[in-house]
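Inverse folding, one chain.
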C-alpha cells in the first residue's frame, strides 16, 4: 500500500534534511527587496487577509487566525501588483484579487501538509500536526470557500477564471498523487503536473491583473504565460530545496517529497539516466526509507550531474517567461517582473553551487 510506504519513510528521511545539506538563504526572504517597494499595498492585503478569519464562527476563529497570520513570501500578491502597474496601474480590485490568490494558496498549503505528512510550515507546527487531518481538511476547504466569497467583489469573468484556475490546481495535485512511486512517470508528464499545480497559481495573478485593467488580450495572455513559466521554475526550485535545503533556514518540513513517493525532477532525471543497478537501488531506497540511503541519493544527484541538469531546466522556464515580457512596453514595472525571475535564478544557482563540494 502507498500509505504504508509513506509512513515507513517518514522517520527515516527526516534527520538528513535537518543537518546534512549545505546552508542556503532562507526561502521566505528571497523577494524581500521587491516586496519592500510595495509595502503599503502589501500591508493592506495582509490586514485584509487576516480580517477574513473574523468571518467565521467565534469558536473556530483561532484556527483560521493561525493559518492566516503565518508569514509568507506573498509572491502571488506581489505578482498581482507588479502586473497591475505594468498594465495600467493598481486599482482597488487588484488588492482584492491579491487577497483571493493568497488565500487560495494558503488553502493549498494546508491540504499539502496533510498529503505530505509535514510537521512544520513557515517555522511553526503545521495545522495537521497541531489539530490532525480532519480539522485540516475542513480548514482548507473553508479557506477556498472564503476566497471565492471575496472574489465575488470582482467581475463575473474574473470569478469564473479564478474558479477554473482552482480546478486546474486541484487536478494537478490529483495527477501527482496518483503517480506517487510510479517509475514510469515521464519528464513531460511531470512538467505538465507542475504547470497545473504550481504554474497556474502564478498565471492567475499575472493575467487577471492585466484583465482588470482592460489590457489587450496579447498583453494579458503574455503576462499569464510569464507567470506560469515562473511558477514552473519555482516548483523545480522547491524540488531542489526538498533535497538540499535546511529546515531551520527554510522554515518547513523537508524531505516530504521523497518520503511521500513524489518523483520530483531531480529524482526522475537520476532514475532515467542511471544504470539498471542504480535504478534498482533507487527504487529500494524509496521503498525502505533508510536515512543513510537518502544521503546516497543526494550524493548521486550531485555527482551524476543531475542537479546541474535540473538547474538548467528551471532556467529554461525562466528564459521563456522573460521572453513573454517582450510584449509589454518598457517600464520600471516590467524591469521588476524581470527581477523576480532573476532573483529566483540567483537563489537556485546558490543552492546548486552550495552542493558542489559534496
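Residues assigned per position:
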Amino acid at each position: 500500500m502507498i500509505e504504508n510506504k509513506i509512513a515507513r519513510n517518514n522517520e527515516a528521511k527526516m534527520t538528513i534534511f535537518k543537518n546534512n545539506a549545505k546552508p542556503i538563504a532562507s526561502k521566505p526572504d528571497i523577494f524581500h527587496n521587491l516586496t519592500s517597494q510595495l509595502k503599503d499595498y502589501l500591508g493592506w492585503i495582509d490586514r485584509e487577509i487576516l480580517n477574513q478569519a473574523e468571518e467565521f464562527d467565534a469558536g473556530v476563529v483561532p484556527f483560521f487566525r493561525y493559518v492566516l497570520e503565518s508569514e509568507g513570501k506573498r509572491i502571488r500578491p506581489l505578482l498581482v501588483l507588479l502586473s497591475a502597474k505594468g498594465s495600467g496601474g493598481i486599482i482597488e480590485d487588484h488588492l482584492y484579487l491579491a487577497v483571493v490568490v493568497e488565500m487560495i494558496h494558503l488553502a493549498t498549503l494546508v491540504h499539502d501538509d496533510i498529503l505530505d505528512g509535514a510537521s512544520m510550515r513557515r517555522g511553526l507546527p503545521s495545522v495537521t500536526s497541531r489539530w490532525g487531518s480532519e480539522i485540516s481538511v475542513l480548514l482548507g476547504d473553508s479557506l477556498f470557500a472564503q476566497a471565492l466569497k471575496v472574489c465575488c467583489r470582482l467581475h463575473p469573468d474574473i470569478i469564473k477564471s479564478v474558479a477554473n484556475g482552482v480546478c486546474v490546481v486541484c487536478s494537478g495535485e490529483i495527477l501527482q498523487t496518483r503517480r506517487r512511486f510510479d517509475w514510469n512517470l515521464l519528464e513531460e508528464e511531470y512538467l505538465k503536473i507542475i504547470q497545473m499545480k504550481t504554474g497556474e497559481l502564478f498565471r492567475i495573478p499575472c493575467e487577471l491583473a492585466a484583465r482588470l485593467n482592460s489590457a489587450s488580450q496579447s498583453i494579458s495572455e503574455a503576462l499569464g504565460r510569464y507567470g506560469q513559466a515562473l511558477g514552473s521554475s519555482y516548483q523545480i526550485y522547491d524540488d531542489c530545496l526538498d533535497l538540499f535545503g535546511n529546515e531551520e533556514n527554510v522554515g518547513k518540513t523537508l524531505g516530504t517529497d521523497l518520503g511521500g513517493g513524489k518523483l520530483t525532477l531531480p529524482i526522475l532525471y537520476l532514475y532515467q539516466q542511471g544504470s539498471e543497478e542504480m535504478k534498482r537501488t533507487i527504487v529500494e531506497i524509496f521503498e525502505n526509507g533508510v536515512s543513510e540511503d537518502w544521503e546516497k541519493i543526494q550524493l548521486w544527484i550531485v555527482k551524476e550531474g543531475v542537479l546541474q541538469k535540473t538547474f538548467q531546466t528551471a532556467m529554461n522556464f525562466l528564459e521563456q517567461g522573460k521572453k513573454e515580457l517582450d510584449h509589454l512596453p518598457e517600464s520600471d514595472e516590467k524591469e521588476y517582473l524581470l527581477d523576480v525571475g532573476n532573483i529566483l535564478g540567483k537563489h537556485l544557482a546558490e543552492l546548486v553551487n552550495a552542493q558542489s563540494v559534496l
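The chain is about 75% helix and 0% strand. The chain has a mean pLDDT of 86.
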